[in-house]
Amino acid sequence: MSGIQQLDVVERAVRVLRTINAFDGVSVSELAKLSGVTRAATNRYLVTLETLGYVERNAEKKYAVTRKVLEFSSGAPRDDWVSIMIQPILVDYCRQIGWPLSFSTIRNSQLVVLTNTDVESPLIVRPSREHLVLPLVGRAAGHMLLASKSKAVRDDILSSALIRNTNLYTQAGMSPNALEDILKVTQKQGYATSKLTGMNWATLSVPVQGEDNVEFAVSTRVHPTAVSLNEALSRFVEPLRSCATKLSKTMRTASRS
């Protein structure tokens, strides 16, 4: 096998591992679709990754990363202000609506979930981790944050994101033009929704207004089989906006003190 072929194999294996890390509970078929790697190759990488202790399979035959992978990010900076100021507000609203809330931003042209209330929600079986790093395209919070930027800024962000991940659009099942249409609708309605292909979650996201711009979004996700998207919109848009307003006021007060 040539050096280039070996690099291709490593790149695909890393792509599979990153996809597992992003979704924290994904089947082989979902993984193949989301990573853009063939099912046969995905199976081979999973056998190796499981043998090496980097992934594990749960009772539902879905794969998630192990602590061995999480050790790679043990030196990542912690946002202590999020735990102190943001988390209590999210927990309060989570208890009101039942479904989990998350607080996200854009870092390094990726969507970063700074914190969530998965462990507080009675409707979550497998909680997602904090500081989860996800693709911007195909995610309600990513769309909400992109829609809040000027076109020039979001074009730069997306160009940078494409350098990191050339399959950014295909993995989300959309084109650049389709994303632009979604962002226009998002700007008009003031919230974003998404239903990720192959994943049984629908997400609703609203912006958290800063002093001069929007740097954060607050979101909730629901099982569409339990709560339809239309029902989620009627029930949760206003509580999310109320939560976002409280978060915004709290951060502004802290920045002025």
Write a brief structural summary.
With 257 residues, the chain is α+β, with helices and mostly antiparallel strands.
Mean pLDDT: 86
Low-confidence stretches: none
CATH topology of the largest domain: Beta-Lactamase
> What's the structural domain tally?
2
| Alpha carbon gap, first and last residue | 61 Å
Strand order of the largest sheet: 5-4-3-8-7-6
Q: How many strand segments?
A: 8
Main sheet: strands, sense, barrel: 6 strands, antiparallel
Q: Which structural class do the helices and strands define?
A: alpha+beta
CATH superfamily of the largest domain: GAF domain
CATH class of the largest domain: Alpha Beta
Assess the beta-strand content as a share of residues: 15-25%
SSE string: HHHEEHHEEEHHHHEEEH
In oligomeric terms, what are we looking at?
Answer: single chain
**How many helix segments?**
10
Bulk shape:
globular
Helix share bin: 40-55%
State the main characteristics:
Arc Repressor Mutant, subunit A; two-stranded antiparallel ribbon; 8 strands; alpha+beta; Beta-Lactamase; globular
